Amino acid sequence: MVFEERQLPSNRDVVAPDGSDVRVLCALAGGSLVHITLGAGQCSVPVRHRTVEEIWYFLAGTGEMWREQGSVETVVPTEPGLSLTIPRGTRFQFRAGRDAPLVAVGFTMPPWPGDGEAIAVPGRWSPTVAPGPGLADG
Q1: Which of 10, 112, 121, 134 has the smallest number of CB atoms closer than 10 Å to its CB?
Q2: Ramachandran angles phi, psi of 25, nearest 5°
Q3: pLDDT at 2
Q4: Are the CB atoms for 119 and 67 separated by under 8 Å?
Q5: 17 prior amide bond cis, ω within 30
Q6: What Å distances lie between residue 1 and 4, 5, 7, 33, 111, CA to CA?
Q7: What's residue 90's pLDDT?
Q8: d(CA 94, CA 75)
Q9: Tell me, which fold does domain 14-120 have in CATH?
C-alpha cells in the first residue's frame, strides 16, 4: 500500500475546463480531491461531465451554483459550509460574489480522466472566464 500526503499548492496546477483554478490534492483509485477557486465577480464556463460525478464543499466566499439534468433545474446560493452533488451528466455553472473568490474542494469519482471529459453546454449566465484546456464541444 502506498500512502499520499500533500499540502495545498501555492499556485494553481491547472485551469479547469470550466475556467476555474484547480490545485490538485490527493487521489486514490476510486476518486480524487481538488481545491477549486473562481475569482471574485467571475462566472464559470457551463459544462457537463461524460463519466465522472462530483461532491463539492464550499470553504470561502459566496456565489451561486446552477445545475440542470433532464427536467430538474436549480440555482443554489453557495456559502462556506455548503456541500452539493453534481451527478454524472449534469449541466452546471457557478459564479462568485463580487466581494471575494469562491473557494471549494471537490471530490471526483472516479478520478478525473483527462481531456475531453468536460463538454461545453449552454448555461444560465454569460461566462467571464476563458475555458481551460481539454474542453470538448457539446
Answers
A1: 10
A2: -105, -135
A3: 84
A4: no
A5: no
A6: 10, 13, 20, 19, 18
A7: 98
A8: 9
A9: Jelly Rolls (2.60.120)
pLDDT, the chain, mean: 96
C-alpha cell belonging to residue 69: 439534468
The domain limits of the chain are 14-120
pLDDT tens digits along 50-94: 999 999 999 999 999 999 999 999 999 999 999 999 999 999 999
Q: Is the pLDDT of residue 17 over 90?
A: yes
pTM of the model: 0.95
- The DSSP string of 28-66 is ETTEEEEEEEE-TT-BPPPEEESS-EEEEEEEE--EEEE
**d(C-alpha 32, C-alpha 69), whole Å:** 23
CA distances from 54 to 3, 76, 83, 98, 108 (A): 23, 16, 11, 25, 5
